Amino acid sequence: MSCASEIAMASGKLYSCAFLFPLVLVSLAGCGGGGASTTSSSTPPPSTTYAVAYTGNGNSGGVAPSDSSAYAAGATVTVLGNTGSLVNSGYTFAGWNTAANGSGTVYSAGATFSMASASVTLYAQWTALTTYTVSYAGNGNTGGTAPSDSGRYATGAMVTVLGNTGSLVNTGYSFAGWNTVANGSGTVYSAGATLSMGSSNLTLYAQWTLSSATYTVTYAGNGSTSGFGLPDPNQYTAGSTVTVHGNLGFFFNPGYTFDGWNTSANGSGADRSIGETFIMGNSNVTLYAQWNAVDWPPVSIWGGARNAITLKPDGTVWSWGLNAMGQLGIGTTKDASLPVQVVGQGGTGYLTGIVAVMGGEQHNLALKSDGTVWAWGLNQEEQLGDGNTTNSSTPVQVSGLTSIIKLGSRGYHSVAVKSDGTVWTWGSARYGALGNGVDDSNNDYLVPIVVQGVTNPIMVTSGYMFSIALMQDHTLMAWGNNAEGEIGDGTTTNRLTPIPVPGINQVVWVSAGWTHVVAIRADGTVWTWGANNWQGAFDCEDTYDNNSLGFFCGYGMLGDGTEIDHYTPEQVPGLSGAIMALGGDASTSVLLKDGTVWTFGSNGAGQLGVPSIYQSLVPIQVQGLCSAVYIMTRDFHNEALCANGTLWSWGSGDNGELGIGTTANSAVPVQVTPY
Q1: Is 404 part of any domain?
Q2: Given a cut of 60, is residue 313 above it in pLDDT?
């Protein structure tokens, strides 16, 4: 029986199987199957779906989009945009690709594609950005360095402007920010400001405004008992260059020797040596004297014609050597080959309260702490300044001088500087030596007069009828005798009033010899001009003869390797690091910062400190001398104060000027007998 017949019979009625199947669920157990039960279902099998994933592909920030949909094969997929703000430093987002390296199919946001029979990964694509730099320029700076920005910026990126991190300075100006144009006509930016990067490299130029703020340099004695703080009247703007002065105020401290300057009183700051330069900051500077302890230190040594004079820490003055004109100041005219103490006014007691000494040709000067000047010795050309022409073997007060702060003397006239900066001279007026516009060989000046056109010099010095002043701007002014080119102006014309010395600047020291000049520049180089041979008042011979006056004559005191006079300043070859230099009659001595002493010129009396040579046209080192801190050069003898406080001399000794108790010359240094 068929299945349809069984169903109809079971219901008691005869129906078609095709009619009943949709309406009745019948168990077909045993239907056509020998009594076995069979089940049939109409639900089809599940469909297969696929996913779309997104990846940043090297991103440095942000997150990749997420698509949670499941797609059947053939379904349409809409590509997402960069909804998670993916970023990659130095690149810009450029859509998606089915391959990480970009070799697959490219899709942009919103594009569609038909899903295949596999899941899909879309990789972010990146295009390298064009970047630009920001640089900084000093724009006329005189010191410091411009800031450096190592970043690279894409168009539209924000840039933070740097400050003056390299301490740029411009003498006479103050830093005033940055500008996109050197002349300031562009956009102004201050430190910390931000700007949007354009499409080209950018340079920001430092801007400068005239500085109204100025600062000073003060010198302090820092324990000194005498002397004075030499004022530096210059007003320095931030960034300008300062040249350090020497101990020109003659500070002294009993039991100590001067050892330079320091920015702190206790020496813990920056050391500043004589002639050194430094850049002024944004505040006033005080330089404090530094001191080395010694046992027996004269604080100043000087000398005249065949004599020496020293100042001790207690303010007393001592001298030795030639005394024919009373220049030793001891009340007699008898020579002394050992140190003797200078007596007081009228021969009563001793001269005290002295802060500086200076030696003339056959007269000497002393400056008291009260600003008065005292003199003794030869007075035939009124060089004592006391109103007459009488020699004096005891100190007399120079008439009309008060408030004096520095002295200068060498020949037959004297020079002094007042605290108000005026310069005063007295004595012989020949060849314009007094700087007052007069060449007067018959009428000398019994009392001091003012020099025209020179004020507030750092130091003054004089030779035979000429004088030189070192000015605050570290140039030189000179006047007087110019027969050997002493004025340094390229001529041999006497100058009756002060004129500038051309061809030399940044001078920190100057000394007049008899007819030549030696100077030191801030860089430690040595310069000379004037006479390069000395015949003096003697009948000099062409050959060395120690038994005649000819041994005092000679050549080479300019140290340039020639015997030729020079009418303008020229550098001495082979010397550097100089801190002090002195001119004698026929020789020159130079002290270097390493404590060595170098000499050149005539050696007839042994004044070069080197035996067995007649002269040297170039610098040679003094032999057998300890480390020196101060030197003195006069006619034909020299002295040096050593760091250990001992005093040494060499050269001519025929009048006892070596201070060793004899009248013998010495071509090597010998120690002055302590006193």
Answers
A1: no
A2: yes
